Automatic annotation (TrEMBL), chains A, B:
Gene3D superfamilies: 3.20.20.210. It is an enzyme of class 4 (lyase). It comes from Lentisphaera araneosa HTCC2155. This is Uroporphyrinogen decarboxylase. One of its GO terms (cellular component) is cytosol. It comes from the Bacteria. The gene is hemE. CDD domains: URO-D. Pathway: Porphyrin-containing compound metabolism; protoporphyrin-IX biosynthesis; coproporphyrinogen-III from 5-aminolevulinate: step 4/4. Catalyzes the decarboxylation of four acetate groups of uroporphyrinogen-III to yield coproporphyrinogen-III.
Amino acid sequence: MGLLLDTALGKKCERTPIWLMRQAGRYMPEYRAVREKFSFLEMCMQYENAVEVTMQPIDILDVDAAILFSDILTPLIPMGFDLKFYEGRGPVIHNPIENAEDVSRVVVPDVKKGSDYVYDALSAIRKKLSPEKDLIGFSGAPFTVASYAIEGGSSKNYLKIKTFMYTQPKAYDELMNKIAEMTCYYLLEQFKAGAQIVQIFDSWGGVLSREDYLKYSHPYTVKIIDFIKKETGGKPVIHFVKGANAYFDSVADSQADVLGTDWTLPLNVAKDLCNNSRVLQGNLDPASLFSNKEILADKLELIREQAKGLKGHIFNLGHGIMPKTPVENVKFVVDTVKSWRNN
Amino acid sequence: MGLLLDTALGKKCERTPIWLMRQAGRYMPEYRAVREKFSFLEMCMQYENAVEVTMQPIDILDVDAAILFSDILTPLIPMGFDLKFYEGRGPVIHNPIENAEDVSRVVVPDVKKGSDYVYDALSAIRKKLSPEKDLIGFSGAPFTVASYAIEGGSSKNYLKIKTFMYTQPKAYDELMNKIAEMTCYYLLEQFKAGAQIVQIFDSWGGVLSREDYLKYSHPYTVKIIDFIKKETGGKPVIHFVKGANAYFDSVADSQADVLGTDWTLPLNVAKDLCNNSRVLQGNLDPASLFSNKEILADKLELIREQAKGLKGHIFNLGHGIMPKTPVENVKFVVDTVKSWRNN
């Protein structure tokens, strides 16, 4: 058990743990060397590949935790969705949900079925990791996963899922419950395989107004967190909703141990909004990694300042690392944060 | 002088004024009938077209104000940018700023030069409008306009402008000052031509962290607002920064009379963040116009509730109306809001 887990569980630690969303990725030459030989889905679904690239940021950056290399959308495949990834276009679902009837064909797969490679990878990674490095599993939040299932891919204004949730409330609820049920077992099996903490990514929850977030996204994530807490005896959960910043108090209303913040929600503001009841994770703008060490040093110092007095702080970016990020700047951030000492 | 102006200037009015961002647009069959015959730029730059479509929502919806039909990017043309609009792709700038040297070729045009059609349209519209309907002029905020000038069009993560502002601070400042200077005179001439209030759109300011917003966007907008206040003897200004919600207190730090809010910033939260020092404008999610009257009625009631006790409230959407929005739902919103009475 390492610093990440200790901090997530509310213990005071000697320093702030750090990991980075999408820390295994295209910005790293070592990743690109593997990626050249395999498609993105083969990287996720051939577990030897997933293990190899998951370990890269541990070996190269010496971050405090490994996060399984995968994608929030792969569990849609055993649910019956035809998911493909295209270069420069991202994920495409070729049979998206277009009407209420389509929801009835969505399968809730048997536990483990179709996602064995995830659990195999987690077991193998946990064996390779030294004990002080923690292992993070993850899933998408049902709203974010459903947005792809309904939009058919990335979206500019989320009009299809919003129209669907407003006009087909029963079918929407059925779809969300199916995704939530799948996710409960998907995350539970990840814990059984070796994950010690999980993050639930609601990457697009912030496109909703507060009342819509509370009606159409939050309850389904809460169901998953409640299930995980009960079935694992309280293992830690990180809940990250990007952009839901003006109503972060509503996001905080769950059993999640850690709340993620993006760079537009200053940590001191987030602290006040949740009454300092949660450990916070974040929140450097990944675009700032394209600046230089002087600017980065200032930004890190500001985050350190804003994190003072928090119940706990896990350093991270506010979103995933981007493809052409200079590796030396990433190393500078990791080394700087690891040099901080809490007193 | 109508309800919009009175409310913006802090007077208590018998009812909440309403106008809608992009109220003249593709969702209206009357607009599409004109648009069939002209390109998007011809719609903006042939002032008879701009006048015709600007008047449509007044005649059809009976909203309380007209806003000039135009685009925030057209003033980039006399600055030397090669701006085109393509169907389904939006704006493209074929000679974007790629390095510090490119900034020196950016022209600050003589007052009026190259934008005469805007002032001609405003004069003609003011003559056509009945006295109780107010006329709104507008511009982009320098950060948002510069994002197109540097990215070359719409952007997903604003990486080019962020990299430019971090790594070329002097050239960035020079570019922003040129855009701000142009905008000062662009808005002043709009007032002279007949506009009674202006809105400055910082549509993408919310992609910045608080400290970056305060360094790279806010000061340039403040310069414009200060100039307008001084030169017009205090004519009203609406400042709308989309997404900068967790640091709305920082946005509020200017002489703007009215602050725009998007649907992820509840009006009661915004009120507290600016100590109720400003009239607020907003903030229905434009996607909710794709629902039905029952849902819309609930959402309108919630906004009315959240607006209680505000210094003043101008009803609007949280962003522009989308192309396929059902006109009957827009009418329902306008009629409902106009039926409210303040007591």
